[in-house]
């Protein structure tokens, strides 16, 4: 009879503990999710305010009149006087003697 009551108690604990654990974890998750959502809403609101401030500054900087189209704009070309010549590429100076320098392969490459 003792084992029967103990078995029933263990069975009830086995049923109740996972449910209680799930409820505790669920409440913690909901609390963290709510805090994260509030932070996201606050960040989005601050970003919207910053965007509005930037737009106000850009509107203040916008020119009030259109630029004159009859003012010529000089664009540089490849033949402009200030175009510099590129320096010629020189082969590197040999730093040391390589074992293949006297081989037929090296002689074929250099000739």
From TrEMBL:
Membrane spanning stretches: 6-24
Domain of life according to the entry: Bacteria
Transmembrane helix listed as a keyword: yes
Region Disordered, annotated ranges: 60-86
Compositional bias ranges of the Basic and acidic residues kind: 62-72
Keyword set, alphabetical order: Membrane, Transmembrane, Transmembrane helix
Protein name in the entry: Uncharacterized protein
